[in-house]
Specification:
- The chain is built from 14 helices and no strands.
- It is mainly alpha-helical.
- The radius of gyration is 19 Å and the shape is globular.
- It starts with a helix and ends with a helix.
- The relative contact order is 0.19.
């Protein structure tokens, strides 16, 4: 499969979702319902089946976690410096900016793009990153955003909310269930297995459709200076560092390294906009960054697929 063959169907399905949303085929409520279906049923079903069929010998492979999240922390700190020196942002603004710069759209784009371009074998490394992704990134963002008026109570409350969200997230629950079924060899009735398998087949195309529809929610809202810093950091610096750490520092397997780089090469995560709304800071430029980075991620994905020799 050439890079163009890998990326073009993703682009076309996403464009279809965007057009359907823009021309009113999806109402706001319908779009949200389809998104909930995708990320509470379809994607969790796909991940559950992938995990129960995988060899989980490396599920707690900490060097792999380090190879992804050390670059994430580095990028977060670089963004802190950039946002202070060049954008003159306060503590809250720097926390929001840095979270956007380091936070990949791992679920809406990362999961389907890895499965489509790298195959089901990428599910285990993909699951490892996705499991810890939100918790680590939003923990960093919360600590940074709260640093100006640091309060142990505020941080503890925020962390409790993050932990609750982490534990009750359908994707996390599906991964945990898959690991338990795999490790303890829990038998699954054939009818149930086939039903879950049938549902999971819709996950990847519907996820790309939801992606396109989601883009229609964001527009070009001004404040271009933060965007001009944030998008290159996200689309170039983060995957470059992840590539270096996975292949040069920790010497990960080819497939695991490719999976990590593809997640890192993704656009700014949509959840960062919600994070910005919580602190009422940076909503405008983050919305623009999500849109711009999502469009440019086609180039980013294509570059890294070609660089890593994925065919």
């Amino acid at each position: 499969m050439s890079v163009v063959d890998a990326i073009l169907p993703v682009l076309l399905i996403s464009i279809l979702g965007y057009v359907l949303a823009r021309f009113g085929f999806f109402s706001a409520e319908g779009h949200k319902a389809l998104s909930r279906l995708t990320f509470t049923i379809l994607i969790p079903s796909l991940l559950f089946l992938g995990v129960i069929k995988s060899n989980l010998g490396n599920i707690f492979y900490f060097p792999f976690l380090a190879s992804y999240f050390i670059p994430v922390v580095i990028v977060f700190l670089v963004a802190q410096v950039v946002s202070r020196l060049f954008l003159n942002l306060g503590a809250t603004g720097r926390g929001v900016f840095s979270t956007g710069a380091a936070y990949s759209n791992a679920t809406v784009i990362g999961i389907p793009i890895c499965l489509y371009t790298l195959g089901e074998e990428s599910l285990v490394p993909l699951s490892i990153i996705v499991t810890f992704h939100n918790f680590i990134l939003f923990t960093l963002g919360t600590i940074a955003a709260e640093s100006r008026q640091f309060s142990v109570k505020n941080v503890v409350n925020q962390m409790a909310g993050l932990l609750q969200s982490f534990v009750t997230n359908p994707i996390t629950l599906a991964l945990i269930a898959g690991v338990l079924v795999n490790v303890f060899a829990v038998p699954i009735p054939p009818v149930l297995f086939e039903s879950i398998s049938f549902v999971s087949e819709a996950a990847v195309p519907i996820a790309f459709l939801v992606l396109g529809a989601s883009i229609s929610d964001y527009g070009l809202r001004g404040q271009w200076l933060p965007v001009l810093f944030l998008v290159p950091i996200k689309l170039f610096l983060l995957p470059l560092l992840v590539w270096f750490f996975t292949f040069r520092v920790f010497d990960s397997s080819v497939l695991w390294g490719q999976t990590a780089v593809m997640i890192a090469a993704g656009p700014v995560g949509i959840a960062t906009y919600v994070f910005a709304q919580r602190y009422q800071s940076g909503e405008s430029y983050l919305a623009t960054s999500i849109l711009v980075s999502t469009i440019l991620s086609v180039v980013s994905f294509g570059f890294w697929l070609n660089w890593m020799g994925v065919s």
